[in-house]
Amino acid sequence: MQTAFVIGVLASLLAGSAGAQTAFPTRTVKFIVPFPGGGINDVLARIVGEQLKAKWGQPVVIENKTGAGGNIGADLAYQSEPDGYTLLLSPPGPLAVNQTLYKQLSYKPQEFVPITVVGSVPNVVIVRKELPVGSLKELIDHVKANPGKVTFGSQGNGATPHLTGMMFQGMTGTQMVHVPYRGETLVLNDMIGGHVDVFFGNIAAAGPPYRDGRVKILALCDAHRSPALPETPTTAEAGLPGLVSTGWFALAAPPRTPPALVSAIANAAIEAIKTRGRSEVPRRQRRPDRQQPGRGRRLHPRRGRALERRDPEEQHRGGLRYDNPPLSCPRKRASSNPGASNRCESAPVTPAPGIGIGESLAAPPLPHHRTYGSVYGGSVD
Questions:
Q1: How far from 124 is each of 34, 229, 371, CA to CA, in Å?
Q2: Can you list the domains of the chain with their CATH numbers?
């Protein structure tokens, strides 16, 4: 009798423990975005958060902590409790680049626990509309004729547009002045105002002002043309084949987050992304007018900041690719085969219909750049 009683008690405790483990989340989950609101990082976080809120039945809030090339937000996420309630959704900089650019960081990027890559988008060569160039070759000639006078903006040191600009200068033997901002919408607003000459920003953010005629796009930094901008040549077609640049966005957890919890969050995020992708085509078919160039894109009468007035999802839908592969190669699982690739192996990409752009989830081999995969299990690219 006593033995049976003890067994019953242990069974109930184990059942209660299992129930407690599967109860996540029981309260609000927070996504830390290390760049300002209105940019693609912020918009993507809100899209994924909206889907997870519906799946979990708990609020998902977005907290924008900007500055220092994303390091401030990354540090906040790094110092958080490893309970799954605070996560980082970030582009390459804070996770895979900044440790090679800054002498000292207040956090260790390699200790973040990777959850999944949620999206990727190619960059484009954007110039202000008043700049007297109409092609990539003309831009190169213009910069060569004006060394140290042409400015290019970025989201800060270590951001993909910054590294792409440095690569452009190295490949063409030119010299420009880097002007760092806190976010891409700030760069585009100043470009529209005539204060920044060049921006190697992503296609999703640049599409709306380009279609409105407020900026010019000279080339796509990808191997193939984009369905979102089919008239825009690739950098290879424009005469600079090595200039390839794609930004990605990954969800990561603080160090020491339990593997079982990470797996549960990854599965939920992947399902949320798939759900979003499945709902995209019917919405487009119901509202084809939303894709018409120039519709509903008048400037604010006092501020003139059309980017921030638009529906954030519509602003970025043109070039964003939703992805669903979980990152599954922490350092302890790196391949022992010397000839094997050290990049993360992931599930097949299932982009949303009509949004698939680019073919590789790996970050481009930019100067001083390490891919998210190499940080967690391999060599520097």
A1: 22, 10, 20
A2: 29-120+248-377 (3.40.190.150), 122-246 (3.40.190.10)
